Amino acid sequence: MKSTPDLCDTYPNIVRVLAPLFKNFGGLEQFSGPVVTVKCFEDNSLVKEILGTPGYGRILVVDAGGSMRRACLGDLLAQQALDNDWRGVIMYGCVRDADEIKTINVGIQALGTHPMKTEKKGIGEQGLTVTFAGVTISPGDYVYADNNGVLVSSTELI
Hints:
This protein is of the alpha/beta class. The protein has 4 helices and 12 strands; from the N terminus they run H-E-E-E-H-E-E-H-E-H-E-E-E-E-E-E. The protein has a single domain (4-153), classed as Ribonuclease E inhibitor RraA/RraA-like (Glucose Oxidase, domain 1, 3-Layer(bba) Sandwich).
């Protein structure tokens, strides 16, 4: 994958750049792929369900409402993502088990860490267009992420 700065230089009118809120936590620091979306708040039931299905190299984009009170992804779900061929997760919220996650070869970017897990109420929606960090992201868009930032495009760039 080209770096996100190179993609911005090559496709300045095509890429949408998320505000610089995200940090890299996964073992894969550069990742890209088509998007699957989830919207949930302090309940990762649907995140777990989706990561339990074949990922085919896709990126799970989770609008967790920017919650800084619960972690919607930990080491077990990160490993599940890897085992099921998910390329990465963009989490508009928190993760936990940061030391373990960085050893798992999957891309994970999130706002921060929090040690508290979510409650399991089975609440959430899949396949919605979501908006956070100043960007609207739809299922089927493409995400490109590295240590420089996160980009979204409606078409595949590389």
